[in-house]
Write a structure and sequence with these properties.
Bound molecules: adenosine-5'-diphosphate, manganese (II) ion
Distance between the termini: 92 Å
Order of helices and strands: HHHHEEHEEEHHEHEEHEEHHEEHEHE
Length: about 425
């Protein structure tokens, strides 16, 4: 009796989880029939730009999509969107940064490795806005943010906060610092190991034909830098150019000249745009400074071109022009190790003294020499005034830290010992 009851209840329990036979068969047929369209709906179809475009041009009835962008703990950007009324944005007076009238917001810092789970809210405070190239028209914005604890302290990963103070300093501001930043990057297939245009598990023909090249045998993934270029122009990022790099699949764009903190802001936003563009094309952009370590392949850097007002003007009364430029370079030389320490992770793999770099262990400078830590351009040397190029920073450098450090070192009131000067023309230059 007991057994029978148990057995009945067991059967009844199991039956509760089983589909009635007829409905089960219908379900199977339904799944089969729907499989292909479902895949298209949830997968490929949503990637069709033409499909999305139908919605992107719809009016927004007075609301503006604001994409809040911040820097995470891995040197990447993250973002999320909120709708704000146009009237909120219109509060900004003529000439005022729109960011100043936008509300702060929060995100879950425990999901980005930036805050503990039990006190997970990180505040994001808008600092600069850009027209959003991914939601064109309708006044939609990208909103660059700084990150803070609930107590209002900048997060350790909020390097902008300190840099902004450096550039706001009265003397530094008066010096009118300009930065031109050359961001190199490498396009990878989604396997994360094969650069674009490289045979899987193998190597392409040696370097030489690729830099600034043309042709399907030399250039891989040009659509990415082209789309990114337009996206930057739309966003009003002062992108000054692009070029194909020495290693196949490697590219460069330049941002600048920018004044003070804008250099870091624009580079970070341009990196965000690059990741978004790559998302559309199904490729990855790596800013690792030595993506391929085996063989003769160039690394990736972020040369930083720098000048102050004094350097951009001819020498007069014992200052300005080349005199100021060389004084600044001597100061950089005296703090070489400190600069290297903040010029990007894994930079020792890149600064080997080969592949148009100088050794990480020695500081040197020279006119037109791409084997030096710092290069003075031929035009600058000929004119007697202009700017210099710090070739040491890696492609993954934090531009806030690097530009802030250069500013601080260059403005030191010390006469540093003369740095090593090497002026022989490099064999292959660009
Ligand atoms: P390279 O010859 O090293 O490849 P690029 O042309 O790629 O140089 O980059 C040079 C960068 O320097 C550009 O972004 C440019 O806008 C910037 N630049 C030009 N003049 C100055 C200046 N006076 N001060 C700082 N940066 C400058
Ligand atoms: Mn360049
Ligand atoms: Mn380059
Ligand atoms: Mn350069």
């Amino acid at each position: 009796m007991m057994y029978a009851v148990l057995s009945v209840s067991f059967v009844a329990g199991a039956a509760a989880f089983r589909m009635p036979a007829s409905s089960g068969r219908r379900m199977a047929a339904h799944v089969l029939k729907m499989e292909a369209p479902m895949e298209r709906v949830t997968g490929k179809a949503s990637f069709e730009p033409a499909v999305l475009d139908r919605y992107m041009s719809l009016p927004q009835n007075g609301m503006v999509q604001c994409e809040y962008v911040w820097i995470d703990a891995d040197g990447k950007t993250r973002s999320k969107t909120r709708s704000l009324p146009q009237s909120r944005i219109d509060r900004a007076k003529a000439g005022q940064e729109v960011a100043e009238v936008l509300p702060s917001w929060t995100f879950d810092g425990s999901s980005t490795g930036q805050a503990p789970g039990e006190d997970s809210e990180v505040y994001i405070k808008p600092v600069r806005t850009y027209p959003d190239p991914f939601r064109p028209g309708n006044g939609n914005l990208l909103v660059l943010c700084e990150t803070f604890t609930p107590e209002g302290q900048p997060l350790p990963t909020n390097t902008r906060n300190h840099a902004a103070k450096v550039f706001a300093d009265k003397e530094n501001f008066a010096a009118e610092p300009w930065f031109g930043l050359e961001q190199e990057y490498t396009l990878f297939n989604l396997d994360e190991v094969t650069p674009l245009g490289w045979p899987t598990g193998g190597y392409p023909k040696p370097q030489g034909p690729y830099y600034c090249g043309a042709g399907a045998d030399r250039i891989f993934g040009r659509a990415v830098p082209e789309a990114h270029y337009k996206a930057c122009l739309y966003a009003k990022i002062p992108i000054s150019g692009i070029n194909a790099e020495v290693m196949p699949g490697q590219w460069e764009y330049q941002v600048g000249p920018c004044v003070g903190i804008e250099g870091g802001d624009h580079v970070w936003m341009s990196r965000y745009l690059l990741d978004r563009v790559c998302e559309d094309f199904g490729v990855m952009a790596s800013i690792h400074p030595k993506p391929i370590t085996k063989g003769d392949w160039n690394g990736a850097g972020m040369h930083i071109n720098f000048s102050t007002k004094e350097m951009r003007e001819p020498e007069a009364n014992g200052k300005g022009g080349m005199k100021s430029i060389i004084e600044a370079i001597d100061r950089l030389g005296a703090r070489h190790k400190e600069h290297i320490a903040v010029y990007g992770e894994d930079n020792e793999l890149r600064l080997t003294g080969k592949h148009e770099t100088a050794s990480i262990n020695e500081f040197s400078y020279g006119v037109a020499n791409r084997g030096c830590s710092v290069r003075i351009g031929r035009d600058t040397a000929a004119a007697g005034f202009g700017y210099f190029e710090d070739r040491r920073p890696a492609s993954n450098v934090d531009p806030y830290v690097a530009t802030g450090k250069i500013m601080t070192t260059v403005m030191e009131k010390v006469k540093a010992p003369a740095a090593v000067r090497k002026d022989k023309e490099a064999a292959v230059v660009h």
